[in-house]
Write a structure and sequence with these properties.
- The complex is a heterodimer of chains A (114) and B (429).
- Chain A is mainly alpha-helical.
- Chain A has two domains: 1-30; 34-114.
- Chain A has helices spanning 2-27, 34-38, 40-44, 49-58, 80-91; strands at 64-67, 74-75, 78-79, 96-97, 106-108.
- In chain A, strands 4-1-5 form a three-stranded parallel beta sheet, with helices on one face. Chain A has a two-stranded antiparallel sheet with strand order 2-3.
- The longest helix of chain A has 26 residues, at 2-27.
- Chain A is elongated.
- The model of chain A has no long low-confidence stretch (mean pLDDT 91).
- Chain B is mainly α and 429 residues long.
- Chain B has one domain.
- Chain B is built from 19 helices and no strands.
- In chain B, α4 (85-108) runs antiparallel to α8 (173-195), α9 runs antiparallel to α19 (405-418) and α17 packs antiparallel against α19.
- The longest helix of chain B is centred in the first third of the chain and has 24 residues, at 85-108.
- Classes of the chains: A mainly alpha (114), B mainly alpha (429).
- At the A-B interface, α1, α2, α3, α5 and β4 of A face α4, α5, α9, α10 and α16 of B.
């Protein structure tokens, strides 16, 4: 009896889950090019791509960068400035965030963080 | 690039076959064990400036196979026609078709989920570029919001894969997560086939492998499903230990729990839940203490590194975890955790069927163990939100549907086990 319930339950669960998973996988198929995929996190977070390009041009591989944040605002569990900092940390490697403004070799001073 | 990724995974499988023989794990658990071993070794070696590349993969594989050979328990290479039965064949084909369907999706998925690139991917990319956990980044106070205190198993594994592929590829890295999923399902098959009939094992592997939350979260390249797979393997290894009379030391559960604890901080919650459940079900304090010490030993190098580098942790289980910051939210948080657990769109019917299986097998050690594990795990996860300094409703909405994965995977793999008649009756093991 236990095994029959377990088997029938499994069949019902598969009937519910399998088609949904199949459809979700089909919908998730990305056809982005390599350059589009590279900036996908920034696009997803609606960051200012032109601002990031300007920063990227200023930062070399051995630099320690610091972003002087203008007015900030909360965003989820973090803030808008932290999202920009997180993206910079990910995208500008091997350059790393400086431990302080004084320690930085490149200082970025955006007027606003859209 | 993909061929090199597969070759690296083949070496991890080789290391897993050896370690599985050494630790007396079932052969099917070899791949997950190899991935866990690679993750633990590469994460710890990254702290002392040792890069885990092809040489380390080959050495680990050779040493592990050598250890396995000395035990005399390496499986003999022989080609046999698999006996899957009327139910097993279509279920196995369904999993294969799903994997083939998923492969190009995982291959082309951009790394755009926040934690995947900001936390796990950033660390993986840095480990790939620097070759180790350079404290200029990994202990930088300015990078503290990126959860520097989270252990390094998953980013280290990603970095091993990235080095094998010739560089960090934010799309192809998803394939490593798909392979971890395959390794997990193989491990569950390895354990379940020992005691459960094919007619129950295979459908339940499909239930889990085709669950929308399982595949959908694997595709995000977050650490939650890898953690859940280690937890699931530890749960099954514990059930096997209980079924064998709980004699000796629970080495296999300790190994998988150590991997889980090094995957994500929530791994400690699951380890605690599983050890409490083992104690309740078996009353074997010595074995439980041994497993707890193994988990702590696996975490210790990372904890020492964090302390030496003054990396702050607001999520690690410390004395702060006893400080109630949001009194009164526990019932609300528990309700929010149970909602996705019971959702047909996430983990269809898994928790209700587990509940029924526990009730029907209530007079067995495994049922006591399983029920205690799931209940304590949910209460432990609930406690995270009660003591977190973060705004709790936001925190729950961002993570509540993911932190429960270990409990759901554990429940799913225990359900067919509970439905068998071979579960031991309550009594002195």
């Amino acid at each position: 009896m236990r095994r029959l319930i377990c088997f029938v339950g499994a069949v019902v669960a598969i009937t519910i889950g399998f088609p949904e998973t199949w459809d979700e996988l089909s919908a998730a198929h990305s056809r982005l090019g390599a350059s589009e995929a590279r900036i996908a996190p920034a696009v997803h977070e609606q960051l200012d791509l032109s601002l990031i390009d300007v920063w990227a041009a200023q930062i070399g591989p051995h630099d320690r960068w610091w972003i002087v944040v203008p007015a900030d605002r909360p965003e989820g569990l973090t803030t808008r400035a932290e999202v920009y900092r997180a993206y910079a940390t990910y995208a500008f490697l091997p350059a790393v965030p400086a431990s302080s403004l004084a320690d930085a070799t490149v200082v970025l001073r955006p007027k606003a963080l859209p | 690039m993909i061929a090199r990724l597969l070759l690296a995974n083949l070496l991890e499988l080789g290391a897993g076959i050896g370690i599985a023989a050494f630790l007396r794990l079932p052969f099917g658990a070899s791949y997950l064990a190899g991935i866990g071993l690679t993750g633990v070794l590469s994460a710890h070696l990254a702290l002392v400036h040792v890069t885990y590349g092809w040489l380390a993969l080959a050495v680990a594989c050779a040493v592990s196979l050598g250890l396995g050979y000395r035990t005399g328990r390496l499986p003999a290479l022989q080609l046999r026609r698999p006996r899957l039965g009327l139910i097993g064949w279509p279920a196995c084909v369904a999993l294969l078709i799903l994997t083939v369907h998923a492969w190009p999706v995982f291959r082309s998925k951009p790394l755009d989920n926040y934690d995947a690139w900001a936390m796990w991917g950033m660390k993986a990319k840095a480990l790939t570029i620097f070759g180790w956990a350079d404290p200029h980044l990994f202990a930088a106070s300015s990078a503290a919001p990126l959860h520097l205190d989270y252990p390094l198993l998953v980013p280290s594994l990603e970095a091993v894969t990235a080095r094998a592929m010739g560089g960090f590829n934010p799309e192809a890295i998803h394939l490593q997560f798909l392979l971890i999923g395959v390794a997990g399902i193989a491990a569950f098959h390895g354990y379940l086939r020992q005691t459960v009939s094919r007619r129950l094992t295979w459908p339940w592997l499909v239930v889990l492998g085709a669950a929308p939350a399982f595949v959908g979260q694997l595709l995000t390249a977050y650490a939650d499903i890898p953690l859940a797979l280690f937890v699931g393997a530890a749960v099954l290894a514990s059930a096997a230990w209980i079924a064998q009379g709980a004699g000796g030391l629970p080495i296999a559960p300790a190994f998988f729990l150590a991997c889980a604890a090094l995957t994500k901080n929530e791994g400690v919650v699951y380890a605690a839940a599983l050890l409490i459940a083992l104690l309740v079900a078996t009353r074997r304090l010595r074995g439980v203490v041994f497993a707890g010490l193994c988990v702590e030993a696996s975490l210790l190098p990372w904890q020492i590194w964090l302390a030496a580098r003054h990396v702050h942790s607001d999520t690690l289980l410390t004395v702060h975890s006893l400080e109630v910051r949001h009194p009164g939210i526990a019932p609300l948080a528990l309700h929010a955790l149970l909602r996705p657990a019971l959702s047909l769109d996430s983990w269809p019917l898994i928790l209700p069927l587990f509940g029924i299986a526990v009730l029907l097998a209530r007079a067995t050690h495994v049922a006591v163990f399983g029920a205690t594990f799931v209940v304590v795990a949910f209460l432990g996860l609930d406690w995270i939100y009660v003591v977190s300094p973060l705004e709790w409703s936001n925190y729950l909405s961002y993570s509540g549907d993911r932190v429960i994965d270990g409990a759901l995977v554990g429940a799913a793999v225990l359900t067919p086990l509970l439905a068998t008649q071979r579960a031991s009756r309550i009594g002195t093991p």
